[in-house]
Amino acid sequence: MRLVVTGATGFIGARLIDRALSRGYEVTALARDPERAAARIGARLGVEKWSIGDPLPPLAQSDAVLHLAAYIPADLSDARQAARCFEINTNGAIQIAMEAASQGVKRFVLFGSAQVYAPGTEPASEASPAYPVHRASYYLASKLAAEICVLAFGKSSAMPVTVLRLASVYGPGMHDTGMVPTFVRTLGSGRSLVIQDGGRYSVDLVYVDDVVTLALQAVETAEGGVFNAGSGRACTSLEAAQIVADAVGAERHLIAVEGDSTDAAPRGFRVLNVSKAANELSYAPLSFREGIEAWKSMTGLTDFQDGSVNA
């Protein structure tokens, strides 16, 4: 099978390429900085210099395009970034899908965000309302619009399109900012950790290899439609810190909690209902504790990289 991966030097893209190569696939990696992918070059991997907006190179009858490249503004609340978000994330995605179809590519996988769902107390299914006005609205709206446009094009062109709505992804090679890396670095060095909001910030944390496995399963089965890619479990910031402490051998008393008012509404993002992916794509994600242990056994929980928002 021949795959094309955009955003090839990003956290998920690099992991996806490694897994695809290990399965014997041929991969064309599209990246703004080909030298960052040079370490992976081999007989079954080709690297092309490419940015969103550039014409796709000849894809030699590839079986699928997996589109991860995106623009994430440094200031997610800046309305002046809306036009660029839509130019790259929406218009760019539909352009890539159209060019891929014109070259005979058989299927298309678009990586979206599960943060598009409207707030709610129940796990979000793929049919739950998507209305991203509470955070990162310009970026998330551009990602949601990309889903709509690419799915519509796929239907009209008879090219199966799969959209994966990702929860909060963590694991080897992740960017060195965010909640999980902060917890690992702080507790791993034996320093105390202060958690805000009473430790009640809640999020669905999904291990990167589960996301990659789901994407490749979608390619192999040519299954179209929207699928949630999460763990299917809510994890609070306090629970996550305690799990990381156990994994790195830190004492839990290093974790302090501030702002524990029971009157405050919980913050964070909705947990995902992943039953559709489980039923149709045999998806079986790890819990956060299982994912942290898997990461620990692989790299010792130290494999971070400097992030690029438009890989």
TrEMBL record:
Quote the InterPro entries the UniProt record gives: Epimerase_deHydtase, Lipid_A_modif_metabolic_enz, NAD(P)-bd_dom_sf
Entry annotated with the keyword Lyase: no
Q: Which residues form a coiled coil?
A: none
Which key words tag this protein in UniProt?
Plasmid
| All copies of domain NAD-dependent epimerase/dehydratase, residue ranges | 4-230
Q: Which Pfam families match?
A: Epimerase
What is the official name of this protein in its record? Nucleotide sugar epimerase dehydratase protein
Give the species: Rhizobium meliloti (strain 1021)
User: Upper taxonomic classification of the species?
Assistant: Bacteria, Pseudomonadati, Pseudomonadota, Alphaproteobacteria, Hyphomicrobiales
